[in-house]
Amino acid sequence: MSVAHDTVAGMTSINERFVHETTAEYGVPGPVAQEFMARLRPCLYLAPHNEVPPSRREDVRSAARTGGLPALPDGVDWPERRAPLVLSVDCAALPRDILDIELPADGHPLIFAEIEYPPESSVVLHIPAGARIAERAATYELNGETMQIRVYEPRTLYPVPGLTLDSDWQGGPQTRAFLDGDGDEEALDRFEEAVLDAAFGGHRPGVCVQIGGVSNPWDMAPDEGDLVLFAEMARQAIDYNVFTMNLIVGTRENFAAGEYVGLRYEQQC
Questions:
Q1: DSSP string computed for 237-260
Q2: Is the peptide bond before 118 cis (omega within 30 degrees of 0)?
Q3: pLDDT for 87-141, tens place per residue?
Q4: pTM of the full predicted structure?
Q5: Cα atoms in the Cβ-side hemisphere of radius 13 Å centred on 35
Q6: CB within 8 Å of 99: residues ≥ 6 apart
Q7: CA–CA gap between residue 3 and residue 194 (Å, rounded)
């Protein structure tokens, strides 16, 4: 990704001068910083209000919710296998011109997924803006018995712009030469953390939901080739007692066209 004007990716308040000043602080050469900036991608963190940096709390607007019951249009019910609702996103409330994937300008993507191991199903529904909707109950009838669908505790989330970094960035030729010489790997890691924290406006949340950017998987990254990250839902962001990483990826064409049927869901634990 190129650097537009004086900002990294042209989408955050982190400017090139700041990055180079930070490289000097940690003893990182300029060519290494250029490789670093080339592997950055913008994201939106969805975090509870108390984890929004203080400098951004006054004007931040809620844009998502974990858990709760789904509000669905007439004629639409829980997805067939009745996976619980894990995330609802209000596209109109997301900051614009942040992400490098194209999401709808309005409407609500709803993510239904089994986040407890082993995963059984996942569905993403996009509810158009202005649709007549009503909340669905968490019970249904099966063979004469009343069945209960799991409902996770609803938590309101707020969007905070940030930057993510390709985990392979240190394999670049300049960076590799730096590390193979007398380069300090720990200083390089601290430099990386300092820049990414500054982009967030404070210390990044360890457990959160992330929209766009590069995934931070526990195993093999699913966002490779033509696939890019739509959402990453870390373990306890949904339920404090669940310890899985849940990732949804698709193509840029999927997102630009508002097509959520063919997205790929992956759970890691």
A1: GT-TT---EEEEEEEHHHHHTT--
A2: yes
A3: 999 999 999 889 999 998 999 999 999 998 888 778 999 999 999 999 999 999 8
A4: 0.90
A5: 18
A6: 11, 42, 43, 44, 211, 212, 213
A7: 19
